Amino acid sequence: MAKKTTLTQNTLVKFYMDYVLEHNHAPKSIYTFAKSNGFEEADFYQFFANFEVLESTIFSLFFTNTLETLESSKDYPTYDSRNQLLSFYFTFFENLTANRSYVVYALNESSNQLENLKKLKGLRSKFLNYIDQLDIEVLQIKNKQLEQIKDSVVQETYWIQLMLTLKFWLDDTSTSFEKTDIFIEKSINASFDLINISPLKSFVDFGKFLIKEKISMN
User: 3-state DSSP helix/strand/coil percent for the chain, to nearest 5?
Assistant: First the structure.
């Protein structure tokens, strides 16, 4: 009989990551995985329905750990949305780097890239919610349906940006992934400059002024 082990979600995640890195493949079954780590198979299902859910949770935990680190800082809440997102990126990729061997394995396990991307489902949900809460300033549209579409476009744009950064990091061979740090800073700044509404507001205000003055003169 397997020796009883006190389990938590984090314990199972550690067991799983250690297993795939030591064997270069996922466990063949939950039974053998449980037996090799000294707990009962039934205990596994208290936390995860299967390995696929566990794999998705791993990337969610990278996000959660990142946010907990940021929120423990007294300075983070004082940052504007641009610097909060920059802080998120730098901290998130520090977490990925600390677990790079697993991340590289997980995102290259299958020859079908869509299968690999399924592991990011939980991360995607949390990240999109995070972007929504950042209160990134964009042009306001006085139409409820168009406003919802705009919000969705903003979220998807930043998700694509995260995926592009992840791909760059996976391919980065520079010391301490210095090029990824540069990529992060330049891409985040570029995205915020692109959606910066201040110049557009100036044109709108100028247009209103011209219309008002033309009416006054007439």
Answer: 75, 0, 25
| CA count, 13 A, side-chain hemisphere, 95 | 18
Answer whether residue 54 is part of any domain.
Answer: no
C-alpha 25/C-alpha 91 separation (Å) is: 28
Residues 100 and 168 in one domain: yes
CB 119 within 8 A of CB 166: no
Same-domain check for residues 143 and 190 = yes
Contact of 56 with 63, CB cutoff 8 Å: no
pTM for the full model? 0.83
Quick: pLDDT tens for 15-33.
999 999 999 999 999 999 9
In which domain, by residue range, is 26 found?
Answer: 9-44
Q: Is 217 within a domain?
A: no
Cα 90 from Cα 81, distance rounded (Å): 14
Count the domains in the chain: 2
Which two structure tokens, joined as six digits, stand for 51? 């390995």
Q: Is residue 198 part of a domain?
A: yes
Q: Each residue of 51-66: pLDDT tens digit?
A: 999 999 999 999 999 9
